Amino acid sequence: MLEKTYNPAEIEARHYRRWEEGNAFAARPESNRKPYTIVIPPPNVTGSLHMGHALNNTLQDVLIRFERMRGRDALWQPGTDHAGIATQMVVERQLDAQGISRHDLGREEFIRRVWEWKAQSGGTIIGQLRRLGASCDWARERFTMDEGLSAAVIKTFVELHRQGLIFKDKRLVNWDSKLLTAISDLEVESREVKGFLWYFRYPIDGMPERHIVVATTRPETMLGDTGVAVHPDDPRFADLIGKHVLLPIVNRRIPIVADEYSDPEKGSGAVKITPAHDFNDFEVGRRHDLEVINVFDQHASINDNAPVEYRGLDRYAAREKVVAAFEHLGLVEKIEPHTHTVPYGDRSGVAIEPWLTEQWYVDAKTLAQKPIEAVRSGSIRIIPETEKRTFFQWMDNIQPWCVSRQLWWGHQIPAWYGPDGHYFVELDEAAAQAAAKAHYGRDVELTRDADVLDTWFSSALWPFSTLGWPEQTADLKRYYPTDVLITGKDILFFWVARMMMMGLHFMQEIPFHTVYLHGLVTDEKGQKMSKSKGNIIDPLDLIDKYGADALRFTMASIAAQGRQIKLSTQRVEGNRNFATKLWNATRFCEVNGCHPVPGFDPASCKLTLSKWLIGELAQTAASVTEAAEQFRFNDMANTLYGFIWGTYCDWFLEFAKPVLQGEDQEAAAEIRAVTAWGIDRLLHLLHPIMPFLTEELYEKFIGGRSMLIGEAWPQLPASLVDAGAQAEIGWLVRLISDIRAVRSEMNVPAGATLPLLVREANAETRARLNRYGALIKRLARIGDIDAAVATVPTGSVQIVLEEATFALPLADIIDFAAERARLKKEIGKLDGEIGKIDGKLNNAAFIAKAPAEVVDEQRERREEAVATKARLGRALQQLAG
RNA sequence: GGGCGCGUAGCUCAGCGGGAGAGCGUCCCCUUCACACGGGGAAGGUCACAGGUUCAAUCCCUGUCGCGCCCACCA
Description:
The chain has 29 helices and 29 strands. It is of the alpha/beta class.
């Protein structure tokens, strides 16, 4: 016997264990089933489950469970990401607490400590994914820095280098002066900052009476100025082109050049050029062969290239000192408040400095061509479609990808340097030695490049490296390309695009057929969840309180495409209630002896009620299946919610009650079977979204040895839909609803029983009243039914349904005025409708141009409305007289 | 500056060419034997605004206003 309420906490752990012990998540490469593959977006080993994970993994699990039930060999490939910067930061912070830095330990020892940390805490998120119910094939769990994946990384690096698609270059990079590493363009975020625009006068060499005004938001960079640019067509500066400026403070003579980069509208119209510290200036400098003078060290403090009194100053201190010096010299024209955007490191949160260094770059432009084509041709489908535009916009303008990082935790770059700086990119040190010997003609000492690769480099290989590449494994052959990739739209560029590049390059095949991108989970006000705002909702708290299924159902139901996803606890609570509802419906079955009948054939049912339920359920199953196929998770969830609560519980079970308790044993037996069959089918349909609850009910209610997770997805033919049964039960539902509404509006005491008088009922209605009299009496609190009265007593409330009028005599309690008002309102509504329809029907163009069936439909609607209005009008008249 | 998207019931959002929908909230009634994490009922909307296309527009097009997000931008 089931408990009175569903208690998720006890149940979830047990079923998860059953699934794992039963090997239910395992892919079956040996089977002849068609594979269905999803690779998980590997969470950071440092991570713990947040709402984004909860959403992302719920959706993946829904699809995996759905396709598994549909008979596919489902592989959900799990694993974690070493998350270079994030992980290094975590361990460094721990060391910091002990007062040691990674440099105290040395590289080798530090890395050992990170592995140690990983062994202890790295599994947190995997445990949390289990609590969510994720049915990953855990035996296949991978890590981006495990042996096989590391080998894959080295191989791709070496091959891309051989193909000229990875190269070393000295140019400006985004330098993070806190983490002391280069970062890629994507890791830079712009923030709007309130600052100032300083207008400085630069004296012209040889023209003591003249100066040129430049404007800057970063006065300290003037220490590295090597030119001033003006627009070639700007008359204000025409005579100064070719002259030189005597740079104050530094006393450097620098040229005034004409360059179209200079915008006459901006600032003073003349722009100072600092090639070593600005991406645009770097280009201008290159065009005019300007000197590149780097004035910052790696900490963004002033270096020895600047005058001695500035050396060692932090960039902001240097800024103040430069401004003070200009003021002292009387060379400040003016200072304006100015809002502008400044680049910040997404991890460190400090302002990024464009800094001249040598780094490794991937030729992304070349690698992007095949992905662009794949998306354009539709061989990779992106959902929602609108994201395609974003994808193309980025891919069409893609810049070289800086992949080297000055960190310790990650895949060390397989490049070895000889004594003269010549380098050898090889799979291992031995190969590098051999190459070096061939190059130098003797053995030399080699030093390995100290840098590691961007974390996203190894993630880019994920769909094939996890399946065994570079070995040509059977798994790789069977499960690649994968079917769907589900991830947040915020990592479309970071990860998705790069998987396409690497997959198409190394596998010569797309990594996945479909990319499903979901939005960001925010709080209920649409605010991004963050520690500082204190608005974080921890999914584990919700799981503890409402159960994993309630959370999963919520995620599925709000996963509408392309929006930000606002989560409210209230919704989760509501969905927990839904779980309880189904729980109790099953309990009802149990209490009433509705047990599944082996070999039950829905097509053999005779009762209209059975046929109705079966048909409705068949339609629901079709909708749910279609929604799942089209990744419309919200439709899937909402369809099931509506059917289970609104149709099965609210109506079907209520209709079933009297039959189950009635005299007719044959009918009772059929209804028992249909009721149980309905629950069984619903458990199947709901399982991908609510696996724990449904598995529990399946075990308790259906019994047997098998587990629901491995059962077949319901397939109910459209032939089970019975239009006659739908019309008949639909009529019954409307009649009962109408009577209930009238009772409530007229304040009839809930317990009072009223007679029902029916006028002008045709033969079919009379037959229906006969068939469903007991139900009507029970559900609408009706006493006797007189199906053929000629007149209705004064003081009755009247309801018009199809051809018949139903009256509830309420002489003693009826409020005449209220009833007149109700009828008038109804009539008013009908008048409005008739007016609208007449507008169409009286329009010759409508008759001529609209499809015939639309015209017919409007005519029918009009007839119905007119007839109903007439009956209501009669009722109103009777009330008045 | 370039791009994308959104303005529908008090709130959160579905719907997207021919009868305005859901959940939550609100109000009224009901402890009836699956469920008060429940049952029954009700109120509430010129579908942002202005034009246009169409026989017909919440839905398509254009513009305006308001709000998000992404990319670029340190004069």
